[in-house]
Amino acid sequence: xxxxxxxxxxxxxxxxxxxxEIPLKLATYAALGSLALCLTLSTVTPLQAQTxxxxxxxxxxxxxxxxxxxxxxxxxxxxxxxxxxxxxxWNPVGEPGTDLYVHDSKTGKTLRITSPQVMxxxxxxxxxxxxxxxxxxxxxxxxxxxxxxxxxxxxxRGEKVDLAQWENAALETVKKELADKKAKDDAQKAADKAEAxxxxxxxxxxxxxxxxxPAPAAAxxxxxxxxxxxxxxxxxxxxxxxxxxxxxxxxARDKLKPGDLYPGVAQVMWARKADELIFQYxxxxxxxxxxxxxxxxxxASQRQLRIVAYTPDDAGFVYMDETRVLxxxxxxxxxxxxxxxxxxGDDEPKKYRIDQTTISxxxxxxxxxxxxxxxxxxxxxxxxxxxxxxxxEIMNYSERWATAKKVDREVSDDKRREKPxxxxxxxVPAAGEAPHKQPAPVFTNGGGDVWFEMSDVxxxxxxxxxxxxxxxxxxxxxxxxxxxxxxxAKPELVLERRGDxxxxxxxxxxxxxxxxxxxxxxxxxxxxxxxPYAIDVASKALRPLLKGEFEAHDxxxxxxxxxxxxxxxxxxxxxxxxxxxxxxxxxxxxAVGAPGEYHRSAVVSYDGRxxxxxxxxxxxxxxxxxxxxxxxAKPATLTDSTDKAWAAVDxxxxxxxxxxxxxxxRIEGYVFKPAGWKxxxxxxAVVYVYGGPLNDRHIVEVDSFQxxxxxxxxxxxxxxxxxxxSVDPRGHSNYGRKFSDANWEQAGExxxxxxxxxxxxxxxxxxxxxQRVGLNGWSFGGFQTQYTLYTKxxxxxxxxxxxxxxxxxxxxxxxxxxxxxxxxxxxxxxxKYSLLPLAKGLKKPLxxxxxxxxxxxLYQDTVNVYRALLDSGKESLVDLFLDPDGVHGLGGTVKxxxxxxxxxxxxLQHLGRTSQP
Length: 917
What we know:
- Among the domains are: 164-254; 646-911, 3-Layer(aba) Sandwich (Rossmann fold).
- The protein is α+β, with helices and mostly antiparallel strands.
- 22% of the residues lie in helices and 27% in strands.
- The chain is globular, with a radius of gyration of 32 Å.
- GO terms for molecular function: dipeptidyl-peptidase activity; serine-type peptidase activity.
- Pfam families: DPPIV_N, Peptidase_S9.
């Protein structure tokens, strides 16, 4: 469905020993076709026109191979204050963890600062040995999984294959380990017995000596060989089922866990002036300066330390442990606690404790967000018993007897347990300065049974003021505050909106000051699109910064003169976010990145001259790229994250299209057309849909290689001649408020209408047989697939619904209360959107798919709708495909190749094959 809301992000650091120089590579770009298209339905080919491929069609085992073709994207890029250096975390395909790389824009060279070999200088040898051993295990497991999947399909084709070879080899390993353990245990027992016999003889000799008697003769050495041999024979005679039990235990014991593999660097922070940085690795802090041959350890403790900032003079650094913010100087030992814990009097009802600390860039001020327990301590000073929330049980069937684990679940009719909140403003103490008297909070919220959200506190660069926003869901109340750097002054309310606030605005409401501190930039959707607005700090006047119907809610940075800002926006192409430089006076926009590429995780240098982002598309897979914001230098590609073997799998690419629905809204999609396709064909087709609001994501994105929509779509078109369509109906995010709010209090209906309008066009525009069109979706798309098949039962010939929330009253309230409908604490009123009463409308075959360990959309959602289908006589129409160990994206016993083999068989059974060659 939707992921749990992300925790606040923290930047991170890195180390190095010998630096590896990486040659600079220039980016190449595919031309972007025109988006000026006709009204009813048009196609656009911004990346590559459809051409017949001479490559053989890859198998599902090749497409979804165990070792992914794609490594992790570069992350947490940041520029040095001078703008010369760009640090980022990344590693090539197959390497574990994320290491620190630094690119020098002056020389065009990239240095790898950390690696397992480099960090071995700071690690215990046992840890490095464990990392190497577990990496070898991971690679062996992936290789075996791939070999097994290939062999299983060969067996089904009638080839002679030994499917037991892997288990037999594993059982032989178990036998050897058991024998080795037995031999070791026997040797230890023999040694223990010999030592006991010797001790007994010594004590007997001592007793004889004291009694004046001769020492007794030593007992003959007992032989443990016979019993040991008999025991070994017994082990060797263990039946196969017993060895399988031992193997199961071994696999559980050796299963890869978080922390088993080399993690790399977790956080980086540049100095305020110098070209140097501090990075965090495995909880310790390390320092690297441009030109140094290796990093040096600052604090290599066993605690989870996090770097916050350099001190204003770069002579020290500020960091955090689990609860405290501390300051240290490079030239001297010791640390000073900056955010000493709050002192709350015995008579104060709310016992606040610090939850979050933010320090201004100039290092002079800090904000402390504190929270208090809902139940105060008792008269004896012991903590009060806090109310616990709802927990649901998830069954595990992997052992002999089923067991249950409990997971937290807050649904729409649950009473909320929002902790009381207080915001304190404090001056950061100077080195050695005595603590000041604690000020009172400048802002509070009483918490309780309310839905209250507060953004992070943003400071002006000069530390003169701060800002934050709040959202109260029940009141539909959005507020933005600006406060002065004063420990006792209350912040001023500068903007209030009640009722007319888009449901997707709250997630992007993070205020930010311009460098001169005169303007506060906030994200609003006053005109129906999430875009930046400027609040004049002096006059409190609000004005839009952009013009046009597009999404632009991610402000990246500013030029030093505060005249321009940088923002990610989908202006001109809803499927491709670009990085734009915007004149804050006129709203004029200039693209920094290439048209037709999706830009993610963008950052801009402090001086505004450089930018970087992970950018790419279907023709050129995304990589970290460096741009000069004035276009003076050619973009440079800094990473290489895709296995070269991907080229053999990349046999077909989609075409973009859009159509107008019954309301005149433009609906975006893409389609895989097979080689030899003609508009007059009558081919089977499958439509893939998601359909729900989800922050800033949708299906039609030019850099998305989603498993089912893209990879499986490519496969079915190339192998069977299917027309495979993916579409973004109303309900999706990043198409403006009209789309993201469309789902409100009519869940699934606008999407179903848009799908109906699409199906009407398929026979004439896409060469599709109208009687052989299937519908598929996952998560919200699983809900949408079911809703459409139940309410428009003759529209599609069959459907596959994966992990769909069928009972919205049981889904997480942070999502359902924001996107489905207004909730009530007193009753589960979202049940009005349940699919269970609609299930009786099904007429066509439907396969329900779910991971039985899913903590997000509970497996019970599928069980309950399955029961309703059986109860209404649909047993011959409905199939159930379950992953006993799978979670929301499966990932248990059912791997992607097997998952899509099931899809393949279902579509071929119910939609048939194409009559075209």
